[in-house]
Specification:
Elements: E1 2-6, H1 12-17, E2 22-26, H2 34-38, E3 42-43, H3 47-53, E4 56-59, H4 64-72, E5 86-89, H5 95-106, E6 111-114, E7 117-118, H6 120-126, E8 129-134, H7 137-150, E9 151-158, H8 162-190, H9 195-202, H10 210-214, H11 216-220, H12 230-247, H13 252-262, H14 266-271, H15 278-281
Parallel strand pairs: 1-2, 1-4, 2-3, 4-5, 5-6, 8-9
Antiparallel strand pairs: 7-8
């Protein structure tokens, strides 16, 4: 089985390393694929080249516009794909775009799954990502063994776009939680408590969360290196807010989180992980 992978950034590089088989890779910046190439992956100059070689292609990109270009552009996957191929987009993107890609694929006999992931750099490295999938269920069943190589919690949610809607629910839960984590540490520090001991204690109780266990320790030592980039989180929150507006529902927690993250400088948004929100309180 020939597998392609496009998007070898913070998460994609680790995800691709677990897939094995014959791997064809592409990234806008070739240097970010260097470790995969050194391990035996074949470099491709474009998505078109990946489509020409691979039977199944994974993508994890930055923004919906990147996804659309990678799939439907002149050198795109669907544009240059062939019947019976399967494309799996792990980007957190627009549910409407997921439907558009699915329908475009159907016209050429290509199956497209929207399969956004959650778990950050740690989950990608340890192959313990949560994967939320939309598209044809028979296609999901077909690629499930591959998804097991990169994820631990893998679930099918329905027609195209369902995976993206599920990821929006995930990001909404994280958004308010990140504010709570930062405020908790800031409060404990302001009272003069041993913040590390506070964190150790509350993370084992009802306040426990993935963010509290994995990102709060980074906050305490001013480690703001990206496990998941802040500008990508802002993109996700904006998509969720746009979807909420279409459904005429109010999400005040998400709105506040977006507002606070958006006040960060452009430099911080582009270079740091989501735990940078602690700087707002410091």
């Amino acid at each position: 089985m020939k597998i392609g992978f496009i998007g070898t950034g913070v998460m994609g590089r680790s995800m691709a390393s677990h897939l094995g088989e014959t791997l064809f890779v592409h990234n806008r910046t070739k240097e970010k694929a260097a470790s995969l190439i050194e391990a035996g992956a074949v470099w491709c100059e474009s998505p078109k080249a990946v489509a020409e070689h691979a039977d199944i292609v994974f993508t994890i990109l930055g923004y919906p516009v990147d996804v659309e270009e990678t799939y439907l552009g002149e050198n795109g996957l669907i544009t240059n794909g062939r019947e019976h191929q399967i494309f799996i987009d792990c980007t957190t993107s627009s549910p409407e775009l997921a439907k558009k890609l699915f329908n475009a694929g159907q016209t050429k006999g290509i199956e497209v799954l929207d399969a956004p992931v959650s778990g950050g750099d740690i989950g990608a490295k340890n192959a313990t990502l949560s994967i939320m999938v939309g598209g044809n269920e028979t296609t999901f069943d077909q690629v499930y063994p591959l998804l097991e190589r990169i994820g631990k919690s893998i679930a099918y949610f329905g027609a195209a776009g369902s995976g993206q809607h599920t990821k929006m629910a995930n990001q909404i839960a994280i958004a308010s939680n990140m504010l709570g984590v930062a405020e908790s540490l800031y409060y404990a520090k302001s009272t003069g408590l041993d913040v590390e001991r506070v964190l150790e204690t509350i993370s084992k109780g009802a306040a426990g969360s993935w963010s509290l266990s994995n990102l709060a320790p980074r906050m305490l030592v001013d480690d703001f290196a990206p496990g998941f980039y802040t500008h990508h989180f802002l993109k996700d929150m904006k998509i969720a807010l746009e979807e909420a507006e279409k459904m005429n529902i109010q999400l005040p927690g998400l709105s506040l989180a977006y507002e606070l993250y958006d006040t960060l400088s452009d430099a911080l948004k582009q270079t740091t992980g989501t735990q940078i929100i602690y700087k707002k309180y410091q």
